[in-house]
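Handoff note, outgoing to incoming analyst
You'll be picking up this chain. Sequence as last confirmed:
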Amino acid sequence: MTDITDLSLAKLRDALKDKKVSAVETTDAYLARIDAAKNLNAVITVTADKARAMAKASDDRLSCGEGGALEGVPLGIKDLYCTEGVLTTAGSHILDGFKPRYESTVTSNLWRDGAVMLGKLNMDEFAMGSSNETSFYGPVVSPWRRAGDDAPLTPGGSSGGSAASVAARLCAGATATVHPPAGLAHRHGRGQAHLWALLALGDCRLRLLARPGRTADPRCPRCGDYAALHGRA
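Most recent structure output, in case you need it:
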Protein backbone atom coordinates (compact mmCIF):
# COMPACT_ATOMS: atom_id res chain seq x y z
CA MET A 1 0.00 0.00 0.00
CA THR A 2 1.10 3.61 -0.59
CA ASP A 3 2.70 5.21 2.46
CA ILE A 4 -0.08 6.44 4.72
CA THR A 5 1.13 10.02 4.68
CA ASP A 6 1.12 10.07 0.87
CA LEU A 7 -2.65 9.54 0.72
CA SER A 8 -4.93 12.46 0.01
CA LEU A 9 -7.40 13.32 2.74
CA ALA A 10 -10.24 11.68 0.81
CA LYS A 11 -8.29 8.48 0.15
CA LEU A 12 -7.13 8.30 3.76
CA ARG A 13 -10.68 8.71 4.97
CA ASP A 14 -11.77 5.81 2.75
CA ALA A 15 -8.83 3.63 3.87
CA LEU A 16 -9.75 4.21 7.50
CA LYS A 17 -13.38 3.39 6.85
CA ASP A 18 -12.40 0.20 4.98
CA LYS A 19 -10.00 -0.70 7.84
CA LYS A 20 -6.98 -0.85 5.51
CA VAL A 21 -5.18 1.33 8.05
CA SER A 22 -5.94 2.22 11.66
CA ALA A 23 -6.31 5.71 13.05
CA VAL A 24 -3.59 4.99 15.62
CA GLU A 25 -0.98 3.91 13.05
CA THR A 26 -1.95 6.84 10.84
CA THR A 27 -1.54 9.26 13.73
CA ASP A 28 1.83 7.76 14.67
CA ALA A 29 3.01 8.08 11.07
CA TYR A 30 2.20 11.79 11.01
CA LEU A 31 3.69 12.40 14.48
CA ALA A 32 6.93 10.82 13.24
CA ARG A 33 7.00 13.19 10.27
CA ILE A 34 6.37 16.18 12.53
CA ASP A 35 9.29 15.13 14.74
CA ALA A 36 11.55 14.81 11.70
CA ALA A 37 10.62 18.21 10.24
CA LYS A 38 11.35 20.59 13.11
CA ASN A 39 13.53 22.65 10.77
CA LEU A 40 10.36 23.90 9.07
CA ASN A 41 9.14 25.45 12.35
CA ALA A 42 5.58 24.72 11.23
CA VAL A 43 4.25 23.40 14.54
CA ILE A 44 4.11 25.37 17.78
CA THR A 45 2.60 22.69 20.04
CA VAL A 46 2.51 18.95 19.38
CA THR A 47 -0.38 17.19 21.14
CA ALA A 48 0.87 13.62 20.78
CA ASP A 49 -0.90 12.09 23.79
CA LYS A 50 -4.19 13.76 22.93
CA ALA A 51 -3.84 12.71 19.29
CA ARG A 52 -3.27 9.05 20.18
CA ALA A 53 -6.22 9.07 22.57
CA MET A 54 -8.49 10.59 19.91
CA ALA A 55 -7.20 8.08 17.34
CA LYS A 56 -7.90 5.16 19.69
CA ALA A 57 -11.46 6.42 20.17
CA SER A 58 -11.83 6.69 16.39
CA ASP A 59 -10.62 3.11 15.89
CA ASP A 60 -13.16 1.93 18.47
CA ARG A 61 -15.98 3.67 16.60
CA LEU A 62 -14.79 2.44 13.21
CA SER A 63 -14.57 -1.15 14.47
CA CYS A 64 -18.28 -0.93 15.28
CA GLY A 65 -19.15 0.39 11.84
CA GLU A 66 -19.67 3.86 13.24
CA GLY A 67 -17.81 7.14 12.92
CA GLY A 68 -18.16 10.61 11.53
CA ALA A 69 -17.27 12.07 8.16
CA LEU A 70 -13.64 12.71 9.21
CA GLU A 71 -13.27 9.75 11.55
CA GLY A 72 -9.61 9.11 12.39
CA VAL A 73 -8.21 11.74 10.01
CA PRO A 74 -5.26 13.57 11.65
CA LEU A 75 -5.36 17.34 11.31
CA GLY A 76 -3.18 20.27 12.28
CA ILE A 77 -4.94 23.24 13.85
CA LYS A 78 -3.84 26.80 13.18
CA ASP A 79 -2.96 28.35 16.53
CA LEU A 80 -5.59 31.01 15.97
CA TYR A 81 -8.39 28.57 16.89
CA CYS A 82 -9.12 28.03 20.58
CA THR A 83 -8.68 24.42 21.70
CA GLU A 84 -9.85 23.56 25.19
CA GLY A 85 -6.97 22.89 27.58
CA VAL A 86 -4.34 23.21 24.84
CA LEU A 87 -1.92 26.14 24.54
CA THR A 88 -3.35 28.69 22.10
CA THR A 89 -1.12 31.67 21.32
CA ALA A 90 -2.10 33.12 17.92
CA GLY A 91 1.66 33.25 17.31
CA SER A 92 2.11 35.91 20.01
CA HIS A 93 4.15 36.19 23.21
CA ILE A 94 1.19 38.04 24.72
CA LEU A 95 -0.77 34.76 24.97
CA ASP A 96 2.02 32.68 26.49
CA GLY A 97 0.46 30.09 28.77
CA PHE A 98 -3.11 30.68 27.57
CA LYS A 99 -5.07 27.43 27.63
CA PRO A 100 -8.71 28.12 26.74
CA ARG A 101 -11.50 26.72 28.89
CA TYR A 102 -13.65 26.34 25.79
CA GLU A 103 -13.44 24.95 22.25
CA SER A 104 -13.85 27.01 19.09
CA THR A 105 -16.90 26.29 16.93
CA VAL A 106 -14.66 25.26 14.02
CA THR A 107 -12.69 22.69 16.02
CA SER A 108 -15.80 21.50 17.86
CA ASN A 109 -17.29 20.59 14.48
CA LEU A 110 -14.12 18.77 13.45
CA TRP A 111 -14.01 16.69 16.66
CA ARG A 112 -17.72 15.98 16.32
CA ASP A 113 -16.99 14.46 12.93
CA GLY A 114 -14.15 12.33 14.29
CA ALA A 115 -11.01 14.25 13.29
CA VAL A 116 -7.81 13.82 15.32
CA MET A 117 -5.74 16.80 16.51
CA LEU A 118 -1.98 16.47 15.98
CA GLY A 119 -1.07 19.91 17.28
CA LYS A 120 -1.22 23.68 16.89
CA LEU A 121 0.40 25.28 13.85
CA ASN A 122 2.58 28.35 13.50
CA MET A 123 1.19 31.56 12.03
CA ASP A 124 1.81 35.28 11.68
CA GLU A 125 1.22 36.97 15.02
CA PHE A 126 -2.53 37.45 15.43
CA ALA A 127 -2.83 36.58 11.72
CA MET A 128 -1.39 39.99 10.81
CA GLY A 129 0.92 39.14 7.94
CA SER A 130 1.22 37.41 4.61
CA SER A 131 4.61 35.69 4.82
CA ASN A 132 4.58 33.98 8.25
CA GLU A 133 7.60 35.97 9.39
CA THR A 134 5.97 37.86 12.27
CA SER A 135 5.34 34.91 14.62
CA PHE A 136 6.88 35.12 18.08
CA TYR A 137 7.99 31.53 17.49
CA GLY A 138 9.96 32.45 14.40
CA PRO A 139 9.27 32.22 10.67
CA VAL A 140 7.90 29.11 8.99
CA VAL A 141 10.00 27.62 6.21
CA SER A 142 8.40 26.10 3.12
CA PRO A 143 9.41 22.48 2.43
CA TRP A 144 9.65 23.37 -1.27
CA ARG A 145 12.57 25.00 -3.11
CA ARG A 146 13.14 26.58 -6.49
CA ALA A 147 14.71 24.28 -9.05
CA GLY A 148 18.48 24.41 -8.65
CA ASP A 149 18.29 26.73 -5.63
CA ASP A 150 18.33 25.64 -1.99
CA ALA A 151 17.48 29.08 -0.57
CA PRO A 152 14.64 28.82 1.98
CA LEU A 153 11.25 30.11 0.90
CA THR A 154 8.27 31.40 2.79
CA PRO A 155 5.04 29.37 2.57
CA GLY A 156 3.02 32.57 2.74
CA GLY A 157 0.78 33.68 5.56
CA SER A 158 -0.79 34.18 7.79
CA SER A 159 -1.44 30.42 7.69
CA GLY A 160 2.13 29.47 6.80
CA GLY A 161 2.26 26.68 9.37
CA SER A 162 -0.83 25.12 7.83
CA ALA A 163 0.49 25.38 4.27
CA ALA A 164 3.95 24.03 5.16
CA SER A 165 2.51 21.20 7.26
CA VAL A 166 0.25 19.99 4.49
CA ALA A 167 2.91 20.35 1.79
CA ALA A 168 5.44 18.44 3.94
CA ARG A 169 2.84 15.77 4.81
CA LEU A 170 2.93 16.53 8.53
CA CYS A 171 -0.87 16.17 8.63
CA ALA A 172 -3.67 15.06 6.31
CA GLY A 173 -5.20 18.52 6.43
CA ALA A 174 -5.07 21.71 8.47
CA THR A 175 -7.30 24.56 9.46
CA ALA A 176 -6.32 27.92 8.03
CA THR A 177 -7.80 31.35 7.59
CA VAL A 178 -8.53 32.78 4.17
CA HIS A 179 -11.30 34.95 2.74
CA PRO A 180 -13.92 33.98 3.86
CA PRO A 181 -12.12 33.57 7.16
CA ALA A 182 -12.61 29.87 8.02
CA GLY A 183 -10.65 27.48 5.90
CA LEU A 184 -9.00 24.11 5.63
CA ALA A 185 -5.84 23.19 3.77
CA HIS A 186 -5.52 19.73 2.31
CA ARG A 187 -3.54 17.88 -0.31
CA HIS A 188 -5.29 17.55 -3.63
CA GLY A 189 -3.95 15.72 -6.64
CA ARG A 190 -0.16 15.46 -6.58
CA GLY A 191 0.53 17.01 -3.22
CA GLN A 192 0.01 20.73 -3.68
CA ALA A 193 -1.17 22.64 -0.65
CA HIS A 194 -4.33 24.54 -1.41
CA LEU A 195 -6.22 26.88 0.88
CA TRP A 196 -9.95 26.80 0.39
CA ALA A 197 -12.86 28.18 2.35
CA LEU A 198 -14.20 25.45 4.61
CA LEU A 199 -17.40 25.37 2.57
CA ALA A 200 -15.58 25.05 -0.76
CA LEU A 201 -12.88 22.42 -0.44
CA GLY A 202 -10.96 21.44 -3.56
CA ASP A 203 -12.25 17.87 -3.43
CA CYS A 204 -15.98 18.04 -4.10
CA ARG A 205 -16.55 14.94 -1.96
CA LEU A 206 -15.34 16.89 1.08
CA ARG A 207 -17.34 20.06 0.64
CA LEU A 208 -19.92 19.20 3.26
CA LEU A 209 -17.54 17.74 5.83
CA ALA A 210 -17.30 19.48 9.18
CA ARG A 211 -18.96 22.56 7.77
CA PRO A 212 -19.89 25.22 10.29
CA GLY A 213 -23.57 25.36 11.09
CA ARG A 214 -25.68 28.43 10.49
CA THR A 215 -27.66 28.20 13.66
CA ALA A 216 -27.10 30.67 16.48
CA ASP A 217 -24.00 29.91 18.55
CA PRO A 218 -24.41 31.16 22.15
CA ARG A 219 -20.65 31.86 22.32
CA CYS A 220 -20.75 34.26 19.38
CA PRO A 221 -22.04 37.80 20.09
CA ARG A 222 -23.02 38.29 16.42
CA CYS A 223 -24.88 35.01 15.90
CA GLY A 224 -28.11 36.49 17.20
CA ASP A 225 -27.94 39.18 14.53
CA TYR A 226 -27.27 36.54 11.83
CA ALA A 227 -30.15 34.38 13.02
CA ALA A 228 -32.53 37.32 13.10
CA LEU A 229 -31.47 38.50 9.65
CA HIS A 230 -31.90 35.04 8.07
CA GLY A 231 -34.92 33.90 10.08
CA ARG A 232 -32.97 31.22 11.98
CA ALA A 233 -32.78 30.59 15.69
